[in-house]
Amino acid sequence: MIIDAHQHVWNLDKCSYPWLTPDSGSIYRTFEAVELEPVIRKIGVDKTVLVQAMDSYEDTDYMLATAATHTWVGGVVGWVPLDRPVEAAESLERYRQHEVFKGIRHLIHGEQDPRWLMRPEVQEGFRLLERSGLTFDVIAVFPNHLGLVPLLSEKFPELRIVIDHLAKPPFGSDDWGEWARQLKQAAENPNVFAKVSGLNTAFGPGWSADSLRPCIEIAMNAFGAERLMFGSDWPVATLNGTYEEVWEATHATLADCNAVEKEAIFGGTAARFYRISV
Question: What sequence ranges are listed for the domain Amidohydrolase-related (predicted)?
């Protein structure tokens, strides 16, 4: 089973996305599942994971409604207010009635406090997640957040965590070595995973399979294929390419992997992490 473990949908008429403005370029419009479906059908993607694009109930409800009408949606990563544990517990109980609801994410890179994950009230929220068996997608943008992942995973060793977009590698920066060190440290907990996603936009214009290969090799050495998963990051990825280009480039960077490793990265890992039925 081929799984795209990271993509979004949003409807600007139904939900509010303050971060989306005319300055966002071509993604400043509604993107719905009906637009993505022909692309994934052509490529052969069996299931996708919808990931939250706003810290709001309306965004989560919209994704769940989308999943209800598109059987190829295998999982929804929504949102609850981790920093309000009582409300979070009630919301999780409600959302867990949906089999497709797999975990949550919070736009921590939008918080003024770079150590938001470590706040006592947020930690209470993580205890709820750990007990519930739900997952946490962390936008561990380097350098502010990636270094916190080992602390989070040490405190909540049973919580399944996945680092989105390999924490946005600092391509062409002197911080490359430190990013690699922090990524490797985060991988020391076997319940921490990572997504090979969003790399074309992180690199910027002129990206190619060759330009992405070094960071993917570092991730392979740190996590192994059994803890890496492919994500298109559609439609954000269209700012700097097409779905097909991201798909093909990712395959090209993994050309030397064996069949078992490719099966893991392009489906098996996501199925295990998000508990998506084959």
Answer: 3-276
Angle, in degrees to the nearest 10, between helices 85-95 and 57-69: 10
Closest C-alpha to 71, from 52, 46, 51: 46
**Count of CB atoms situated within 10 Å of the CB of 175:** 13
Per-residue pLDDT of the chain (278 residues; tens, 9 = 90+): 999 999 999 999 999 999 999 999 999 999 999 999 999 999 999 999 999 999 999 999 999 999 999 999 999 999 999 999 999 999 999 999 999 999 999 999 999 999 999 999 999 999 999 999 999 999 988 888 999 999 999 999 999 999 999 999 999 888 999 999 999 999 999 999 999 999 999 999 999 999 999 999 999 999 999 999 999 999 999 999 999 999 999 999 999 999 999 999 999 999 999 999 87
* β-bridge partners, 7: 50, 234
Secondary structure class of 218 (helix, strand, coil)? helix
Minimal CA–CA distance to 228: which of 195, 261, 275? 195
Look-up of token digits 């994500």: 231
Closest CA to 201 of 256, 238, 250, 172: 238
Among the listed residues 116, 171, 160, the one whose alpha carbon sits nearest the alpha carbon of residue 273: 160
H/E stretch holding 120: helix 120-132
List, in sequence order, the alpha helices (H) in 139-175: 149-155
User: Which residue's entry shows tokens 């609801």?
Assistant: 101
With contact defined as beta carbons under 8 Å apart, do 152 and 115 qualify?
no
Domains of the chain, with CATH numbers?
3-274 (3.20.20.140)
> Which tokens go with 246?
């991201």
Of the candidates 213, 149, 229, 154, the residue with the CA atom closest to the CA atom of residue 181: 149
